[in-house]
Specification:
Helices cover about 20% and strands about 45% of the residues. It is built from five helices and ten strands.
């Protein structure tokens, strides 16, 4: 009887060890169980993923994209994005969700990756490090030739803004310009640089933060609040920046 009991205990212990070994193997090899998929922490790749959009589904808060990466097809979800079939999307961080149900679509996705820090422009090595570390985007140090955008009705030019920046501090201003740099999803904001062809000495590039999206080359009109000597930590500061901007 004692021998039977001992064999039974040994069998239970062996089964438990084998199960634990499987769990360890699944994480070390990157294989995900249903439990690890539903509770997985944010994935942070060493470099950016580049995917091509094959299908687009819009909801009030999210855009669901069926994408292809190196012949692998899967669903991703990003904050509202004006995407179309054939677009390129780059991302670094993703949170995989298993059997995720969108109440708005009344649809269950077997697996969907919720993307953070996505961008529509190819990232540089510096940009990859910057977004991974949640640092600020570098300023644009080159005036783009050929840009000529008139000040909007009821608004001002970039030159006027910089020339009389103390006058506009803390106030809302309207400015138009052409997008020359975009960095999305940094510190919960999208960082956009615009130029209109005007300048006050060496000040020709205007940085703004917004929850809206814009693409490189777009001519946009924005309205936001002017801040001077804005500090963001880690040695990053702006003599002048527009925040809480809305893109018209």
């Amino acid at each position: 009887m004692k021998l039977i009991f001992a064999l039974l205990v040994s069998s239970i212990l062996l089964s438990s060890c084998q199960e634990n070994a499987k769990k360890v193997q699944s994480f070390s090899t990157g294989e995900k169980t249903s439990e690890s998929m539903s509770q997985a922490p944010s994935q942070k790749a060493a470099s950016y993923h580049h995917v091509i959009v094959k299908e687009v589904i819009q909801t009030s808060k999210y855009t669901y994209l069926f994408v292809n990466e190196n012949n692998n097809e899967f669903w991703i979800a990003v904050r509202r994005l004006d995407a179309k079939i054939g677009d390129d999307v780059y991302y670094q961080q993703a949170l995989p969700m298993k059997n995720f149900k969108s109440k708005e679509l009344d649809r269950v996705f077997e697996t969907v990756l919720f993307i953070q820090g996505n961008t529509s422009t190819p990232p540089t090595v510096d940009a990859a490090k910057m977004i991974g570390a949640k640092k600020m985007p570098p300023k644009v140090d080159k005036k783009i030739e050929g840009i000529k955008v008139n000040a909007p009705q009821g608004g001002i030019s970039i030159a006027e803004l910089f020339k009389n920046k103390e006058k506009y501090e803390g106030k809302k201003v309207k400015v138009s310009g052409q997008v020359v740099k975009v960095n999305n999803g940094i510190m919960g904001k999208n960082w956009i640089h615009i130029q209109d062809g005007t300048s006050d000495t060496d000040n020709y590039d205007l940085t703004l933060t917004t929850q809206n999206k814009a693409n490189m080359g777009d001519v946009i009109t924005i309205k936001g609040t002017v801040y001077l000597k804005k500090e963001f930590g880690a040695g990053y500061s702006y003599d002048l920046i527009i925040e809480e901007a809305l893109i018209k």
